[in-house]
Amino acid sequence: SLVSTNSWNIDTSILDRKLRTEKNIVVVTDTHLNIVFATKNMWNMSQYRPDEIVGKNPKMFQGDLTSNSTLNIVSKAVKEKNPFEVTVVNYRKDGTTYNCKIQGEPVFDYNGKVVNFIAFEKEVA
User: Fold this and answer.
1) Cα-flanking dihedrals φ and ψ of residue 85, to 5°?
2) Cα–Cα distance list, 63 to 71, 97, 102 (Å)
3) pLDDT value for 14
4) Which tens digit of pLDDT belongs to each residue from 20-41?
5) Are 26 and 120 contacting, i.e. CB atoms less than 8 angstroms apart?
6) Fewest C-beta in 10 Å: which of 3, 26, 92, 125?
């Protein structure tokens, strides 16, 4: 699992609830914000398969209608290693837009070092 492979110090019950009950899409980045993992249901929201986005930056989903002020909230939270929750206009592979609610947070190892960032994403009206 991601948790054991990466030595994450994280409550797995939260992960389980987000994945199974709330049907969130999960995107994991490294500390440089390159995508290292995405759940298969990413396709339903973005029209991208996980293998098409791994190694890329989440900026690939942004465009003209994406709010810079919202992105600044995310950027500040990431720099300060804080959780965040925003709704952002993202772009699908075909160029159409969708509102994406993102709950993101840093993931720490057992030494207290940030090793990844995890985002729980869901399309909202």
Assistant:
1) -140, 120
2) 11, 9, 16
3) 67
4) 666 789 999 999 999 999 989 9
5) yes
6) 125
CA distance 88 to 69: 10
Output the pLDDT for position 80: 96
pLDDT of residue 17: 64
Question: For residues 40 and 54, is the Cβ–Cβ distance under 8 A?
Answer: no
Looking at domain 2-124, which of 3.40.640.10, 2.120.10.80, 3.30.450.20, 3.30.70.260 is its CATH number? 3.30.450.20
- Give the CA distances from residue 60 to residues 46, 83, 91, 94, in Å, rounded to whole numbers and listed in that order: 11, 21, 8, 12
24 burial via Cβ count (<10 Å: 0-12, 13-18, 19+): buried
**What's the CA gap between 55 and 7, in Å, rounded?**
21
- Give the residues of the chain that fall short of pLDDT 50: none
- Looking at residue 19, its amino acid is L
